[in-house]
Amino acid sequence: MQASRARLFKEYKEVQREKTADPDIQLVCDDSNIFKWTALVKGPSETPYDGGVFQLAFSVPEQYPLQPPQVRFLTKIFHPNVHFKTGEICLDILKNAWSPAWTLQSVCRAIIALMAHPEADSPLNCDSGNLLRSGDIRGYQSMARMYTRLAAMPKKG
Amino acid sequence: MNQPFFSGGGGYSCLRFHPDLKDSLLPTMFLSKACSNVNSPGVDQEGDVAEAEAVADAEKETLTSSETDDWKKYRDDDIMQQHSAIQAEQAVKVPFVGDKEPLSSLEAEYHLGNSIVLKKIKVLSEQYAAIRRTRGDGNCFFRSFMFGYLEHILESQDHNEVQHIKANIEECKKTLQSLGYAEFTFEDFFALFLEQLDSVLQGSEDSISHDELLCRSRDPSISDYVVMFFRFVTSGEIRKRSEFFEPFILGLTNTSVEQFCKSAVEPMSEESDHVQIIALSDALGVPIRVVYLDRSSCENNSINVNHHDFIPTSREVGISDVSKTTNPPSITLLYRPGHYDILYPK
C-alpha cells in the first residue's frame, strides 16, 4: 500500500513535469484518491478515430506496480479489442505481460497504438472483429468513424 | 524514450495460449505447470509432468468447437481470478522459501518413483546435506537465488563480496538508464535489495538474524520486490548484450530479444531458463552452480549427477574474481525439470 502510493506519487510528479512532452495524452489524477486516474487520449491520425478524444478510467490496485492497473474506455468506441458495452480493453500488458517497467503514461501510449493496430483475430467486440477478418475494411472504418463522431467529438451547434 | 514492446488483442481468448492458464481451465483442473507438481509427496513427478504435457499437447491438437465454446464462457477477469486462486492454493502448501530439510526428504518424495532418480539422489546425498524448497510460482529461480545469496552473505560476512556486487548493481542501474528505462520505474526495487544486502551484514542497527531473513523472504512486500529487482537486472543485461543472447533466444522462442525481455523476463511469474541464469550471474558477478536431477542416464547405465557452473564473464578481473574461479560457487541450486530449489553441500 505504502509502496504503491510512493510509486504513484512519482508518476504524478513525472506527469506534471512532462505535461507538454506528449500532447496526445492528458493524464489526470483524482483530487482525493491517488488510486483513481482518468486520461484523455487523442485518436491516432490516419485511423477512423482521428479527431476524437477518448476518455479512459484507471483503477490502480494496492499491489501496484507489481500488478497492472485496470483500464477501460469511458467513451464509446467501436474497436475489435474493446468491449462495446463495458469499455474493457484486451491488451496483454494489462494482463499477463504486465511488468513494473510500464507506467500509466506508457499504458496510454500502448492503448493509442492498439487503436491504430487492431488485433482482429482475438476480438472482444466480435462485430468489429468480423468486419476486419472478412476484409471489409470500409465497413469497419465507417462504423468506427460513426461512433467516433457520435461519442468522441464535440457536438456542433 | 523507451517504448516497451506490447501486442494487442485477445478478448476472451486473450490468455488462451498461455500454457499455464489454458491448462487451468481444463475440466479436470489438474495443475500442469511443472512447478506446481514438484512438491506433491510420493508421486513420480516427472511422470506426472510428462503426462500433463501429453494431455496439454493433445488439447492443442484437438481444439474442437465445443472446447472453444467453453472458453468463451470465461472472461479475462475470470481467468485471472482463477489464476490467482490457484496461486493462493499453492501458497498454503509451500511458502515462498521453505525450511531447511535433510536430503532424505527428497528421497521420501520419490519412494515409489523412478529408480534412476532414486539412484541419483543417493549420489547427491554423498555431497549434499540438505535442501530448501521454494514455491513453484514461476519465480522459483529468482527466489532461490535471493535466499541463497543473502544467506551466504549473512553466514560469510564477506564485505569484499558486498562491495563487489554493489559496484555491479550500480552498473546495472546505468545499463537500464541507457536502455531508456525511467529511473522511477526501477529504483524502488533496487533500493529494497540494497537494504537487504546491508541488513545481512552484522554490526549495525539494522542488522538482521537468519530467522528474520527467512521471515522477509516469505513476506511478499519484500520477497516479490527482490524478485522484481533481479528481473530488471536480468532484462537489462540481456538487452545490453543482445547480440550475444540473440541466438539463444531465437532458439528458445523465435522472438526478438526485446520482445523476449518484455514477455518472458520482466513480468512476474514467468519461468527462468539458461538465458536468464547466465544474464543474472554475469550482471551481478555471482557464480551459480545448478545440479540437474532428472531421469536421464548414461548408456552404460552408470549414474552421474550432472551439474553446470555459471561463472560470470568478469568485467574487470579483480582478486576476488580469480579466487572465485578456483572455488566452487557458493550458491547451489537443484534443478528438476520446471523447478529450482536450494541445495546445501556437506
UniProtKB/TrEMBL annotation, chain A:
Pfam families: UQ_con. It comes from the Eukaryota. It is an enzyme of class 2 (transferase). Coiled coil: none annotated. InterPro entries: Ub_conjugating_enzyme (IPR050113), UBC (IPR000608), UBQ-conjugating_AS (IPR023313), UBQ-conjugating_enzyme/RWD (IPR016135). The active site is at C90 (glycyl thioester intermediate). GO terms for molecular function: ATP binding; ubiquitin conjugating enzyme activity. The keyword Transferase applies. GO terms for cellular component: nucleus. CDD domains: UBCc_ScPEX4-like. Its EC number is 2.3.2.23. One of its GO terms (biological process) is protein polyubiquitination. Belongs to the ubiquitin-conjugating enzyme family. This is E2 ubiquitin-conjugating enzyme.
UniProtKB/TrEMBL annotation, chain B:
This is ubiquitinyl hydrolase 1. It comes from the Eukaryota. It catalyses: Thiol-dependent hydrolysis of ester, thioester, amide, peptide and isopeptide bonds formed by the C-terminal Gly of ubiquitin (a 76-residue protein attached to proteins as an intracellular targeting signal). Its EC number is 3.4.19.12. Keywords: Hydrolase, Protease, Thiol protease, Ubl conjugation pathway. The keyword tRNA-binding does not apply. Signal peptide: none annotated. InterPro entries: OTU_dom, Papain-like_cys_pep_sf, Peptidase_C65_otubain, Peptidase_C65_otubain_sub1, Peptidase_C65_otubain_sub2. It holds the Pfam family Peptidase_C65. Gene3D superfamilies: Peptidase C65 Otubain, subdomain 1, Peptidase C65 Otubain, subdomain 2. SUPFAM superfamilies: Cysteine proteinases. Residues 129-346 form the OTU domain.
